[in-house]
Amino acid sequence: MRASFKIIYTGRCVVWSNGEPWKQMRRFTLSTLRDFGMGKRSIEDKIIEEAGFLMERIRSFKGQPFDTDIIINFATANIICSIVFGNRFEYDDTTFLTIGNLVHESFRLLGSPMVQVYNAYPFLSFLPGSHKEICTHFTKLKMCLKDIIEAKHQEMNENDIRSFIDTYIKKQKEESENPGTYFHEKNLLITTSDLFIAGMGTTATTIRWAMYIMIKYPDIQKRVQEEVDRVIGSERSVRMEDRRHMPYTDAVIHEVQRFANIAPLGIPRTTTVDINFQGYFIPKGTYIIPLLASVLYDKTQWEKPEMFNPGHFLDASGKFVKRDAFIPFSTGRRICPGETLAKVELFLFFVTLLQKFDLVALQGAELDLTPVVGGILNPKPHRLRAVARQQRC
Questions:
Q1: Residue 368: is it exposed, middle or buried by C-beta count within 10 angstroms (0-12/13-18/19+)?
Q2: How does DSSP assign 294-345, residue by residue?
């Protein structure tokens, strides 16, 4: 995807830069995310609150078929919005809908034939096609985010820092006399875009895969619900401390991440020095694509890599076991900076969904687990029913 992302990302952001700019932006971003709750109980409270809003939206369908796509994306997006912008959005908010739809459509277009051709042959950029649509979408997205950032500039109160953007603006002022600073408006815009896209896309897609797999395998769904009922019950909210008492549920979530393999190519890397690797000479500056799928589906590491099998993460006594080959967030110094947040979201949203609802496939639906190729691997378009568990029949 190098060519298509090159025309989208033009700043020194957290994901698509390297060297000193990357080091500084990543360090600042991780520090700020931790300040606003990542890895702490406060972010857990926000996710539980957002899960409540999501359950209400699902409940409004009254057991009728619905598409999981938009509402799950918006629920996870609101978590990162609460950190980046300092507030959540209602699901029918016009700005929120516009931003969400632009990101969603861009990810879909990344899997289109013309974008694949453009990635292989960038000199064909002059041709019409979806690669130009993506540019248009991201231009519109940046305009929306720029409006929000400008509003934050106007509201800025250094004695009341409420968001990532507030913290960045404060840092920007502190570095205003430094001609070599990386803390300027372009990087604020692109970093905000990075965080929003990552916070909305990957976690939501994993949750949608989890829901889709549960309707594909209702026996597995039932076993998860039995564990949820035994450990949590039907009334109180799930907490992260419950996870250590729920090995089967934990195994199912891990297996969803392994099986769905939503980012099979990971984030591209570049060699910083000449190296020899397994008999091959790789010169400095070589573009490297880490194929995560080669590990997540490695037959020497997984008993049944092509099958969805929670047993991959359970020992003979039913206890959860970690696996070295489980690297959906990649590995090394450029491991996904949102890993901690994503793990909390996946557990709390998934458990809350199965605590409150039976997820049911539509009659006669063909549940094909072959993914749809795009910026990330999505489950095939589908609808399902969510039946309140008190009203099961």
A1: exposed
A2: HHHT-TTT-SSTTS--GGGGB-TTS-B---TT--TT--STTS-TTHHHHHHH
List residues bridging with 357 in a β-sheet: 388
Helix (H, G, I), strand (E, B) or coil at 384: strand
pLDDT tens string, the chain, 393 residues long: the values are 455 555 555 444 555 556 677 777 888 888 888 888 777 778 899 999 999 999 999 999 999 999 998 899 889 989 988 888 888 889 888 888 888 888 877 777 776 777 767 666 677 676 777 777 888 888 888 888 889 889 988 888 888 888 899 999 998 888 888 887 888 888 888 888 888 777 677 899 999 999 999 999 999 999 999 999 999 999 899 999 999 999 999 999 999 999 999 988 777 778 889 999 889 999 998 888 888 889 999 999 999 999 999 999 999 999 999 999 999 888 887 777 778 889 999 999 999 999 999 999 999 888 999 998 777 889 999 999 999 997 443
The 10 Å Cβ neighbour count of residue 132 is: 17
Give the global pTM.
Answer: 0.88
Q: If DSSP codes are grouped into helix, strand and coil, which group holds residue 128? A: coil
